[in-house]
Amino acid sequence: MSTATTASATAARLDALRAEGRPALVGYLPVGYPDVDRSVQAVTTMVDAGVDVVEIGVPYTDPVMDGPVIQEAAEAALHGGTRVRDVLRVVEAVAQHSGGRVPALVMSYYNPVLRYGVEAFARDLSAAGGAGMITPDLIPDEADEWSTAADAHGLDKVYLVAPSSTPERLRLTAQASRGFVYAASTMGVTGARDAVGDRAERLVADTRSAGAAHVCVGLGVSTGDQAAQVGRYADGVIVGSALVRTLLGDAPWSERLDDLGRVTAELATGVARARTAEGTS
Amino acid sequence: MPAKPVRDALTETLAASDAGRLADVHGPYFGQFGGRYVPEALIAALDELEAEFRKAQADAAFAADLERLHREYTGRPSPLTEVPRFAEHADPDGAVRILLKREDLNHTGSHKINNVLGQALLVKRMGKSRVIAETGAGQHGVATATAAALLGLECVVYMGEEDTRRQALNVARMELLGATVVPVAVGTRTLKDAINEALRDWVTNVESTHYLLGTVTGPHPFPEMVREFHRIIGAEAREQVLERVGRLPDVVAACVGGGSNALGLFNAFLDDDGVELYGFEAGGEGIESGRHAARFSGGAPGVLHGARSYLLQDDDGQTRPSHSVSAGLDYPSVGPAHSWLHDIGRATYEPVTDDEAMEAFRLLCRTEGIIPAIESAHALAGALRVGRRRVAEGLRDQVILVNLSGRGDKDVATAATWFGLLDGTTTEGDR
């Protein structure tokens, strides 16, 4: 398997942060909400406010892993005419804006990529400066075509594990992933929750035992305190709905961006104190 | 010679299958189609389900339980009815005989109960207490609510908001049976979005809940398992036709939404080379209108709801909305086994428009005293078309077997509106 031989920008970033004594803040926003230009503004705002890795979502008509907030944004983005290729523009903007410091991963359901052409998508994503792709409905068992293309273009392959994953599947997924393994904190879809599932810590430990070098946790994190709590044991804290939510609604765009920056900064403070005495109190 | 008893058909159904027969191909793949394109969170449940299904296939007690329910509860075997006055509309000189497999006479009014009882027994074996289901026309939702009531399971049915309006009586039926019906108000508000919502529920509650999927789509093992539970349709029909006609039919026809009634019937004839198989999709307002659910005429291979199959999609791989006068065929993808049968040329799939289906609907009512489901009316219209075509090619003594997959009680309001019966006008009788 080529996992060991292909360098991963995302893994390198996580290692650098680990050396600084903190986990990464991984922020998700969909391309095209409320339109492509403003989604570029939103992502760069998020970068300036302190995310370490970005995930850019491709809106899809049938997002079965997403809760109401991300569904609403995706539906609006599609309604506004967002195309799959627009995600490459956002990836490019992140690469330029951060001088390559912030890895940009695409998060996409499989069919839009399949239709684009798996090899062509990998080629174009790599050319745009993208780090790789997270695949919520593609498991390693079905991913031969994507895996070959990702290896050929030096892209990260981020697969998910869940509290229901068996030890055998954790091994398979850890083995197939590059960049990090995405651990779903709870059984469910995306969306803010009052508490992050207590199964997350166990799942991260089990995934590490199964051979994963880096494990980030997503689903349900929305506050700085939750980020600090999850950041104690995870290499990265993934936040989606709590960020997307700041952009929904009718407030003036500048206010929505301010809100996004404020929530991002709060989460960034959370991960910064995750491994200090204050963070664990 | 009497029709083969239900028990024998089931033993055949559940016996370990031989390799080399099209009828016995196992999942997860049917050619390049099928698979498991789902979140990792569901894989453990799918593995558990497959393991339980394999154990049940080898367990005579499971077969006996299901056989008893089929006989005493569903009313199997369902009869075979010849419809000569209807068949005259294919050829007035009687060159075409049409035989209907009467799945409409099953308890709950369609073939759906075959699969639902099988899966519900598996749910009991797995020790789960809650089932969820999607429904379009309401037939699968009603069947699931029925089985849940019978076996004491909690039942939640997801239904597109648009469909809850089109099929308000079926919503009431499900609620009378103790189910909770959840209207889905996102996306296209039809069957596709009901499935999305059911999958979200399942990802969240998978440890207590079984997703009782209603057709031969979805991730492995559903396409194979649901085919196996409907195999009884074809097994019975094959024996009944042999008994009635003395030979196999020339043509076997069924409507194809997800494709469970069609696959259940086709399966018994897949390895009979002389039998031509036809699946009829919803042509809606016509392929050129873009408002249809004809995946083979207007779609391309892709991934939706866990399986790779033919799919209505745009250039970006976004699912295109489907359209049909019948809610049960109004779905943008199709079971992977049908995509495989299409690609290897073993079955032929053709669209039937709303107009053609409603004309066949009216014809069966008037000539035979049978009100079919509008879904099944697509198969009836297709059978007339194929019959006429074969007569035009000079063929005679044609025997066409059609799956009458459901009854039309649920469609009376739609049909009455279609034919203008509610505003004081009536259409002219055909006789």
Automatic annotation (TrEMBL), chain A:
Keyword Amino-acid biosynthesis found: yes
EC number: 4.2.1.20
Keyword annotations from UniProtKB, A to Z: Amino-acid biosynthesis, Aromatic amino acid biosynthesis, Lyase, Tryptophan biosynthesis
CDD domains: Tryptophan_synthase_alpha
Keyword Lyase on entry: yes
Pathway: Amino-acid biosynthesis; L-tryptophan biosynthesis; L-tryptophan from chorismate: step 5/5
Reaction(s) this enzyme catalyzes, per UniProt: (1S,2R)-1-C-(indol-3-yl)glycerol 3-phosphate + L-serine = D-glyceraldehyde 3-phosphate + L-tryptophan + H2O
Active site: 55, 66
Name of a matching Pfam family: Trp_syntA
PROSITE patterns linked to this entry: TRP_SYNTHASE_ALPHA
Gene3D superfamilies: Aldolase class I
Quaternary organization: Tetramer of two alpha and two beta chains.
Family: Belongs to the TrpA family.
Entry function: The alpha subunit is responsible for the aldol cleavage of indoleglycerol phosphate to indole and glyceraldehyde 3-phosphate.
Protein name, as recorded: Tryptophan synthase alpha chain
Organism: Isoptericola chiayiensis
Recorded name of the encoding gene: trpA
Automatic annotation (TrEMBL), chain B:
Gene3D superfamilies: 3.40.50.1100
SUPFAM superfamilies the UniProt entry points to: Tryptophan synthase beta subunit-like PLP-dependent enzymes (SSF53686)
Pathway assignment: Amino-acid biosynthesis; L-tryptophan biosynthesis; L-tryptophan from chorismate: step 5/5
Pfam families: PALP
Cofactor dependence: pyridoxal 5'-phosphate
Catalytic activity, EC: 4.2.1.20
N6-(pyridoxal phosphate)lysine: modified positions: 112
Alphabetized UniProt keyword annotations: Amino-acid biosynthesis, Aromatic amino acid biosynthesis, Lyase, Pyridoxal phosphate, Tryptophan biosynthesis
Keyword Repressor: no
Endpoints of the signal sequence: none
InterPro entries per the UniProt record, alphabetical: Trp_synth_b_CS, Trp_synth_beta, Trp_synth_beta/beta-like, TrpB-like_PALP, TrpB-like_PALP_sf
Reactions catalysed, as given in the entry: (1S,2R)-1-C-(indol-3-yl)glycerol 3-phosphate + L-serine = D-glyceraldehyde 3-phosphate + L-tryptophan + H2O
CDD domains: Trp-synth_B
Keyword Amino-acid biosynthesis: yes
EC class (word): lyase
Stored NCBIfam families: trpB
Function: The beta subunit is responsible for the synthesis of L-tryptophan from indole and L-serine.
Subunit details: Tetramer of two alpha and two beta chains.
Family label: Belongs to the TrpB family.
Protein name, entry field: Tryptophan synthase beta chain
Species: Isoptericola chiayiensis
